[in-house]
Amino acid sequence: MFELFSSNPGAAVAGLVALTCLTIWPLFKTRSSMLFVNLCAGLGFATHYWLLGLAAPSLVNVLGTVQTGTALFSERSKFVNNIGYALIPLMVLVGFHFWMGPISLICVIASALIAFGRMQTNQMAFRGLILCGCVLWIVHDYLVGSWIALTADVFSFIIGCFAIWQIMDINIQDVIRDRRAKGFGFHDPVQTA
User: What is residue 101's DSSP assignment?
Assistant: First the structure.
């Protein structure tokens, strides 16, 4: 990592920006803010890979960033929503174009899950699909030795799981409160004695 700062400081800074954005996106509450931070992460990784002279991952990240941009506006326009979904098969084709064996299959599936997740308006589906893709990226990053991306993906996954757990806990608490208000179920044994 320190070698990258001395040999290619622009790539290192772009990688750190991407790492930071990819790590913190699950902390945001609204779909649009999560997508915006994902957009910044995609631009950061595209720049990082481009400055390292790696055109394929840079192109894939640019395509993912365009798809993230369409996901940001997909709720406002059926046309834009359709573009967002139409970009998913294109992302898969680009992945197969740069085929490098089974490791490419992991990338393609991970990218497709995340792209499909971005298009979801339900927050649990949105987060869940992105985290499923994140698991595959963790495997990929470990296998190829991409330590910046691995660090970002591991932190993103941990924080994302915690965020889903918080949402589920809040939803369970709401159900208990509603059932108590309606007078059935979930009674406190101390109060009923």
Answer: S
Look-up: residue for tokens 């990929």? Answer: 140
Residue 19 burial class via C-beta count within 10 angstroms: exposed 0-12, middle 13-18, buried 19 and up: buried
130-184 tens-digit pLDDT: 999 999 999 988 888 878 888 999 999 999 999 998 888 777 777 777 777 777 6
Which residue type occupies 9? P
pTM for the full predicted model: 0.79
Determine the residue type at 106.
I
Classified as helix, coil or strand, 53 is: coil
- Please say whether the beta carbons of 100 and 92 come within 8 A: no
**Rounded CA gap, 129 and 150, in Å?**
18
State the number of CA atoms in the 13 A half-sphere of 54 facing the CB: 14
